[in-house]
Amino acid sequence: MPLRLELNDSALQRKLAAARTYPELRQRGGDGPRQPRQRPASRVECLRPVRYGLDLAGLTAHPPFYETHGEQRVAMGLYGEVIRFQSHLAPLAAELKRYVTEESRRAWRVLLTNGALVHRAGSELYLVEVASRLLALGHSPIAYSPILGPLAAELRASTVPVVDDLAAVAEPPDLIHGSAPSAGDDGDAPLSGCSGRVREPRLGSLGGGAAALPSHPSLRGGRLHDAGAAGFRSGHTA
Amino acid sequence: MEVVAGDGVEGYNPGHDVCRLLLNAAVLRLEAEGRTIANLRLSRS
Fold first, then answer.
1. Same domain assignment for residues A156 and A89
2. Could you tell me which residues come within 8 angstroms of residue A138 by beta carbon, excluding any fewer than 6 positions away?
3. Which chain A residue has the Cα nearest residue B22?
4. Are residues A214 and A119 in the same domain?
5. Is A56 exposed, middle or buried (0-12, 13-18, 19+ CB in 10 A)?
6. Option in B12, B17, B29 nearest A103 (CB)
7. Each residue's pLDDT tens digit, A59-114
8. Domain of A59?
9. Are residues A116 and A198 in the same domain?
10. Do B25 and A137 count as a contact with CB atoms less than 8 A apart?
11. 3-class secondary structure, B39
């Protein structure tokens, strides 16, 4: 069942103004630019469900337009190579399918860090919530803090491993989720124990800004760029 | 996030088709984690 959205006057004018900036809408060999006009159909945005996932068979004409267009461009000396469905798009779809299947089955080892795991305070409870949810999803969270207390004991009781020494992390994490250190910490709690062992390390901040993140040799300049400003709140490749 | 929308695979611009592939891959990943996402494509009618 398609979803139909009727645009109000303001939205319609923004849509038409945006359309006028597209060179592809200019007439070919005609009498100048064709200006998108306001028609009844322009006011309706129609959205249909996509159910084909990564199976592209039968979705387009064969050869698709971009192949015949590309062949013409190559003949004109404008393109060096034709992008083709069978040799480019289909292999990409197959690789994405393989990736999605493997990643969906794989349990991630996620190292969650915090300055302290003592009291039921803000970032501490956030770490507990994230670890619990990761565990429920079948992943393997590990909590690290140089200062452990009752909250660390709670985490351990819920089967989340907790360490105060990164050398105790036997397997390299797939993802590091860093958070603010405790007051008085110099913000440089070392993650160097993971040096050279982190596969495709990613690092996010639960808050506290870049200066609060522990150092790691995989991070540019030893630190992630301004985590908050860059939107690094849920884990991005450093 | 509950809804994503983008162009469908049309065989016109391969860049658009690649974007749709990436979008569908992301949705499949989320669905594998138990999320429900409405995956929509822009249509003329």
1. no
2. A107
3. A96
4. yes
5. buried
6. B29
7. 999 999 999 999 999 999 999 999 999 999 999 999 999 999 988 888 889 999 99
8. 54-106
9. yes
10. no
11. strand
